[in-house]
Amino acid sequence: SFSLNDKVGLITGAASGIGLATAKVFLDANIKGLLLVDQTQEALDCVFQQLTSDEISRCDCLAADVSSGNSNYAEQAIKKWGHLDIAVLNAGIGSELKSILETDVKTWDRIMEVNARGGLQQCARVMVKRNSGSIVITASQLGLQGSPLLSAYSASKWAVRGLALTAAEELTPLGIRVNSVCPGPIVTPLINDMKGEDGNGWQRMADATLMKRLGQPNEIANAILYLASDAASFCSGTTLKVDGGYAKF
Ligand code: NAD
């Protein structure tokens, strides 16, 4: 079922957009414990202000940069609840629209280190001790195709998909399912920079979907809930495209 009763999870990038919507969907699905990870304590405090007291009693938070190897959020979840069943590795950054000819190496490196590192190893290391767990990685429809003016972002999401597929092959025999979602264009702060010089970037993205609209964060959160939950018990190595029909394959 889609219930997360008795499960403990963590979500990175939980203070905004898809991660925040996923946190709410997980809480609605009765998750027992949920660790919210994001860059700043301020952003996490803002999230806590939106939660009910019952939800707060099931949540903990940690300010951490997922690109640094210094924060062990998986261990924090273990310390608090004794086990970790679900990890949603979702933190990510976008970029301004720029051609390959104009993209600087600093931008390239930052996008790769945030989007493609993301904490899979630390989560797998704690899950493997119980031979059980479900990892869901937020990739992108731009990790299924090329994406003019977003070369670093697209490359980082292809990297994430390669990692997800490889992790599925290595970790499924150890009891850990690894799957990824590929969202289409979703209305979150991440796409604020993607309006383009003429300001019509969002319209173009909407027009490229079969539904002629942008998606909402909870439309991805529901897909993440499915993959994270026992309802997806036969899914590992799955790439679930949730993009309004943007990628035509
Ligand atoms: P968002 O900007 O609303 O949320 C991303 C969150 O990640 C933010 O709260 C941010 O603070 C956090 N974050 C960024 N870098 C971090 C770091 N180094 N350490 C910890 N936290 C960090 O964006 P979103 O659209 O909700 O993005 C969530 C995921 O979905 C990203 O991986 C993104 O690439 C992916 N995605 C988004 C879209 C879209 O159209 N919005 C499409 C495809 C994929």
From TrEMBL:
Top-level taxon in the UniProt lineage = Eukaryota
Give coiled-coil spans as residue ranges. Answer: none
Species of provenance: Leucocoprinus birnbaumii
Keywords tagged on the record: NADP, Oxidoreductase
The record's comment on protein family reads: Belongs to the short-chain dehydrogenases/reductases (SDR) family.
Q: What is this protein called?
A: Uncharacterized protein
Which Gene Ontology MF annotations are present?
oxidoreductase activity
